[in-house]
């Protein structure tokens, strides 16, 4: 396993193809302009590594992310808010990666923390953690992707209610809303998230990447156009070594050994 670190973002890359990105900005891993730029650089590093087959996004010290740094956001200048809007570039970068991104939510994912979690493909949350968008209590609204991704996930009525009331959902409530994939014991969040990251990293990387691309591109696209893109992807996956390995393993009655190619 190799590791790199900056002031507020750490990166560890394992031999199994899992890249772990850690937000490390005590006390609550809040986003600042500096953290945002470091996170974008880190994602670029991960994207350039052909051996990376999944990403685990987590927070340091048993906490995920409480959103934007309140001191930074107290400067109400357009320049500062434009810098903080770069959070949507982070989310976009995660979504565009054609490898799965797993988010480990410990203690809380609030505001911008919830927004970046929604840009991940799989979300695992601790039983005692909270998930929500409290921006309205500051006279704001979730302006870094929350109004868009939350609505896509839960629908217009529920999204408006959650944002307008600033509700902080329990883990079980978040699961009921479809905002997370699994609720686990607080002390097993990282264990379970790593298990999933390892599982997906051992899968047919190209096929999983194509699935991800097609699913996200389906929003706002008419069905015939989506089916045409799906057809292109079907013929693209035919050229992969993993497809050949999958079929060979099936015929030989053994587990497949996917290489990610």
TrEMBL record:
One of its GO terms (biological process) is fatty acid beta-oxidation. The keyword Lyase applies. It holds the Pfam family ECH_1. Keywords: Lyase. GO terms for molecular function: lyase activity. SUPFAM superfamilies: ClpP/crotonase (SSF52096). InterPro entries: ClpP/crotonase-like_dom_sf, Enoyl-CoA_hydra/iso, Enoyl-CoA_hydra_C. PANTHER family: ENOYL-COA HYDRATASE, MITOCHONDRIAL (PTHR11941:SF54), ENOYL-COA HYDRATASE-RELATED (PTHR11941). This is 3-hydroxybutyryl-CoA dehydratase. It comes from mine drainage metagenome.
């Amino acid at each position: 396993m190799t590791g790199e670190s900056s002031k507020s973002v750490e990166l560890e890359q394992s031999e199994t193809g899992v890249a772990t990105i850690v937000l490390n900005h005590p006390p609550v891993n809040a986003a600042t302009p500096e953290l945002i730029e470091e996170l974008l650089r880190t994602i670029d590093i991960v994207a350039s590594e052909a051996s990376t087959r999944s990403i685990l996004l987590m927070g340091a010290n048993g906490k995920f992310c409480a959103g934007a740094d309140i001191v930074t956001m107290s400067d109400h200048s357009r320049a500062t808010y434009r810098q903080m809007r770069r959070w949507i570039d982070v989310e976009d970068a995660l979504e565009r990666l054609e490898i799965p991104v797993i988010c480990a939510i410990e203690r809380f994912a609030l505001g911008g923390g919830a927004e970046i979690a929604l840009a991940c493909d799989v979300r695992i949350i601790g039983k005692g953690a909270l998930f929500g968008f409290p921006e309205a209590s500051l006279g704001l609204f979730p302006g870094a992707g929350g109004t868009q991704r939350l609505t896509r996930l839960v629908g217009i009525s529920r999204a408006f209610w959650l944002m307008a009331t600033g509700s902080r959902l329990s883990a079980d409530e978040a699961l009921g809303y479809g905002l997370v994939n699994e609720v686990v014991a607080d002390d097993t969040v990282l264990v379970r998230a790593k298990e999933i990251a390892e599982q997906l990293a051992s899968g047919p990387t190209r096929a999983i990447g194509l699935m991800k691309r097609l699913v996200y591109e389906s929003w706002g696209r008419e069905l015939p156009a989506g089916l045409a893109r799906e057809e292109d992807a079907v013929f693209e996956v035919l050229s992969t070594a993993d497809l050949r390995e999958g079929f060979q393993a099936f015929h030989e009655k053994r587990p497949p050994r996917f290489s990610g190619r």
